[in-house]
Specification:
Elements: H1 2-16, H2 23-43, H3 46-51, E1 53-59, E2 67-68, H4 70-83, E3 84-98, E4 101-114, E5 125-137, E6 143-152
Parallel strand pairs: 1-6
Antiparallel strand pairs: 1-2, 3-4, 4-5, 5-6
Length: 163
């Protein structure tokens, strides 16, 4: 019985110090995922992008309805990469961890270069701002984005009025 209690204590101790619940370890994982995301968006590897999101994820692009679910995210970005080149730069500023959940706060820079297949009126642009990402450690041990909410620092441009 004593050996069983000792084994249980050792197992609980190992779980408590695992990198999946350690804030510094989770931050390293998230920063690695962000590096992958930036590369995948730029190269159009949308199935890889989608794999970084939970099945029930919400991606909330500015001035647009949310993309709800991994498949909706995949379908949107499959189309969007045909419009031109997406270059994201993500800088994690803080990560708060509570068990299998983490909240990342950071800054982003986005440069979009419109291609020949961009929708009419869609021009190249640059945006910068802040973001919050809600991460969850899934049953397979992977950390995936559950909520992705960028907030631009740039003011909206006023619509032109044609008379």
């Amino acid at each position: 019985m004593r050996n069983a209690r000792l084994l249980l204590c050792l197992l609980l101790s190992a779980c408590a110090s695992s990198p999946s619940s350690d804030p510094a370890g989770v931050r390293r994982i998230i920063e690695h995922h962000n590096s992958d995301f930036a590369r995948w968006y730029a190269s159009g590897e949308i199935d890889s992008v989608a794999s970084g999101f939970a099945e029930d994820a919400w991606q909330m692009p500015p001035n647009s309805p949310p993309l709800v679910g991994r498949e909706a995210i995949r379908q949107f970005w499959r189309q969007a990469v045909k419009w031109g080149k997406w270059d994201f730069s993500l800088k994690t500023q803080d990560v708060s961890v509570s068990g299998p959940l983490a909240i990342e706060r950071g800054k982003y820079l986005l440069r979009f270069v419109a291609g020949r297949d961009a929708p009419p009126g869609m021009a190249s642009f640059e945006d910068r701002g802040n973001y919050l990402v809600h991460w969850r450690r899934e049953s397979d041990g992977e950390w995936r984005a559950v909520g992705d909410a960028p907030v631009s620092e740039l003011p909206l441009t006023a619509p032109s009025h044609k008379q």
